Amino acid sequence: MKTLLQVDFPYTGPFGDEMTTAMKELAESIAQEPGFIWKVWTENPDTQEAGGIYLFEDEASARAYLEKHTARLMGFGIPHVNGKVFGVNEALSAIDNGPVSLS
Amino acid sequence: MKTLLQVDFPYTGPFGDEMTTAMKELAESIAQEPGFIWKVWTENPDTQEAGGIYLFEDEASARAYLEKHTARLMGFGIPHVNGKVFGVNEALSAIDNGPVSLS
């Protein structure tokens, strides 16, 4: 079952184009994770937060990635990471053009 | 600038196909909201939570919708709603197949 992973955490930058430069290699490696379908990278300089919304093929892949990514972020000095795993309601998402059937 | 809205809240059901039946009309109305691009509907019977990940054309649309939706959910008896608004890093999302350039 398609699984959505919702991650956010305190983040002091860099934001915007500088974030792109700093995180490009990480983004390329994430695309290779088992069960990974897509990630939307999120950032908010006003609240000093960042994160990501991920779609995985199944819950096991999402949970394994969350464990790995949380450890990595804490290694970057991030004090805590909020991670939530959800099933996707594909029928309701389809009504709202939700991109869950892409691969 | 494309804006991602992340919403989750305590939810005791219905889940799955029953949720689809119960929420179909709401999903159809959400598709008509100003600035709305897509929503992925999320649900977790284990943690008794549900929510949604939305993409909007701009921050003002996302914030107006969050205010409206929070009031609606509280009217359904939901005790509190977690809503976070983020900018989207489109360049990093593109590397990870993030569906932010769809319309």
From TrEMBL, chains A, B:
Domain of life where this protein originates? Bacteria
Q: Which GO terms describe its molecular function?
A: monooxygenase activity
Alphabetically sorted, this entry's keywords are: Monooxygenase, Oxidoreductase
Classification via Gene3D superfamilies: 3.30.70.100
Q: Which InterPro entries match?
A: Dimeric_a/b-barrel, YdhR
Q: Does the keyword Oxidoreductase apply?
A: yes
- List each coiled-coil range: none
Which Pfam families does this UniProt record tie to the protein? ydhR
On whether Phosphoprotein is a keyword of this UniProt record, the answer is no
- NCBIfam families found in the cross-reference section: PRK11118.1
Name by which UniProt lists this protein: Monooxygenase
Q: Which organism is it from?
A: Marinobacter profundi
